[in-house]
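Subject: sequence -> structure tokens, single chain

Hey, anyone have a minute? Need the predicted structure for the following. Not urgent.
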Amino acid sequence: MAAGQLIELWGMVRPGTPDAFEHVQMQFAPFGETVYHDVGEPITVMHPQGYFQTSVAAERSGTWRFLWLPSGGGPEVPSGVVGVRVG
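Reply:
Had a minute. Here:
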């Protein structure tokens, strides 16, 4: 894919209680690196079953994941990763 092309990322987290929304943080790591960096602000999950999606411009090759930030507290939970090759 070309640098700057939009990619659509989506996923699902465990639904929160009716009076609380869940949040996920999009993260990126270049290929060959294991440290992920936050991209943008956390995404508020508004779907009652926990589905979410977002679009982002892929500027360089690497892997993307989401970090679930549970509304009830507890440890943050990383998703699986998806690789994107740019260039």
